[in-house]
Amino acid sequence: YDQYKDNIYSLAWNKDGSMLATTSKDKCLRILDPRKPDDAITVTDAFGGIKSTKCFFVNAFGWVGSTGFSKSAKRHLKIWDPRNIEKPLYNQGIDNQASVLLPQVDQDLNILFLAGKGDNSVTYYELRNDDKCVHYLSLYRDSTPQKGGGWVFKRGLNVMKCEVQRFLKMTKDSIIPVSFVVPRKAGGDVFQEDIFPPCVSGKPGQGAEEWCSGNNAEPPTMSMDPDDRKDDDGSGGDIQFSKKASYDEVVQENIQLKQKLKALEDEIAALKAAQGGGGDAGGDYGGGDEAPAEDAPAGGDEAGGDGGDAADYE
Q1: Cα 195 to chain center, whole Å?
Q2: Count of H-run helices and E-run strands, the chain
């Protein structure tokens, strides 16, 4: 990776792990297969400004996009097609704010969200494979600026409320969940399959050795329909997801474990007391006369009793 001469600002993977996009302080956008770094596609002077840039993939159309700044410090959004990198498909100034735009793409619905560090808003657009490419949808705004934030995975959303995205907005002293909901009358009664296609399950499509050998694999998906979902995310793996026990449930479980332990201790004590009679019990069990003392093993009764206790305990 000798082509990187300065700090890397951001990186993004495509869906099957075959391509990696990066932006760096040298104002270049690079698209490469990490297994073949010498074959990187480079967009020089992707943005004229010197502030941080953030890149993203649009998997449905094979595009690569990035946010950045122009020479006049205006925030810009650009999108390229790696198959023809000479000219961006989309190049549009956003505004003159100074904060860095952090992009998030809903890869299932092709919606681009832009949240700026220090802004008090989140803007979102629909991405289409047409002449315009980017179509403005709406804007979320409140009075508290965000210092940063993150996005909840699709499998963690409330689908019966038609929640398609959730932004965890970080402020000075709190984390505020911001839900993006599609308004539908029947959303709480009927699963809306058109806005909730199968999403990434969070399990790997292949191992590291397979990827390093040149194989590409899309990640396994899972149904978002609550009636079809399973504890293992529907893919039959060995990872189990269970609800975290409440404090009262933990206390009750602890009481039950103590009761079981007391019962086992009482049982062990009873077994020791029963075997304390020694040889008479052994003679009766054998069905014959009492064995002569010289024929019994050294420390016979005590050794036999201890051995029995150990077996029962195990």
Answers
A1: 21
A2: 4, 17
**Which H or E element spans position 266?**
helix 247-274
Mean pLDDT of all residues in 161-179: 94
pLDDT tens digits for range 212-261: 999 999 999 999 998 887 655 444 444 455 667 788 889 999 999 999 99
How distant is the alpha carbon of residue 164 from its chain centre? 17
* pTM given for the model: 0.71
Residues 139 and 162: their CA atoms lie apart, in Å, by 18
Give the containing element (helix H, strand E) for 223. Answer: none
Of 269, 262, 259, nearest to 309 by C-alpha is 269
Encoded tokens for 137:
């949808």
CB 108 within 8 A of CB 122: no
- Chain position carrying tokens 């002293």: 173
Output the DSSP codes for 25-51: TTS-EEEE-TTSGGG-EEETTS-SS-S
The closest of 248, 244, 246, 165 to 199, measured between CA atoms, is 165
pLDDT digits (tens, 9 = 90+) for 115-125: 998 899 999 99
Give the phi and the psi of residue 255 in degrees, each rounded to 5.
-60, -45
